[in-house]
From TrEMBL:
Residues 52-166 form the OmpA-like domain. CDD domains: OmpA_C-like. The keyword Cell division applies. It comes from Devosia soli. Residues 1-24 form the signal peptide. This is Peptidoglycan-associated protein. It comes from the Bacteria. It is found in: Cell outer membrane. Keywords: Cell cycle, Cell division, Cell outer membrane, Lipoprotein, Membrane, Palmitate, Signal. Its main location: membrane. The gene is pal.
């Protein structure tokens, strides 16, 4: 079945326009500063050096805790060591430490547990030279889960402290 001439012409024009846009989007001039990340002057992970994105991707913004615990694991301390080094390098940022808990337990218990977790992280970072005046903390208890299910796989993701670069 042949298309009417005006429709055929319109479809050809649309196809040509699409082709031109695709070719233009794919081409780059030799003056583009594209590094290994493919993102110009951006750092690892696509974030500008010293940005929250770079912090999350290269350092890690969260540490995890065991059930009913506010003690730092060796893995958590390794992450916090990297956070402290980054925060000492980029001293112009204030940070918020969020304390979280899984869904089990009362709201009051989980708010207190989240507060203890946040406090432990604050104390660790300040012991590594991060100025305590730059840090605030807040407990969300079980109110902001990142995973929702009635299983250890979800609970373990929710037992955390998150460092938010502001």
């Amino acid at each position: 079945m042949a298309l009417p001439a005006p429709l055929n012409t319109a479809l050809r024009a649309a196809a040509m326009l699409f082709f031109v846009v695709v070719v233009a989007a794919c081409s780059r001039s030799s003056n583009d500063a594209v590094g290994l990340t493919g993102a110009g002057n951006l750092g690892p992970g696509g974030g500008a050096p010293g940005s929250q994105q770079e912090f999350i991707v290269t350092v890690g913004d969260r540490v995890f805790f065991e059930t009913d615990s506010s003690s730092l694991t060796s893995e958590a301390m390794a992450t916090l060591d990297k956070q402290a080094a980054w925060l000492n390098q980029y001293q112009n940022y204030r940070i918020l430490i969020e304390g979280h808990a899984d869904e089990r337990g009362t709201r009051e218990y989980n708010i207190a547990l989240g507060a203890r977790r946040a406090s432990v992280v604050v104390n660790y970072l300040t012991s590594k030279g991060v100025n305590g005046g730059r840090i605030t903390s807040q407990s969300f208890g079980k109110e902001r889960p990142v995973a929702i299910c009635n299983d250890i796989s979800c609970w373990s993701q929710n037992r955390r402290a998150v460092t938010v670069v502001q």
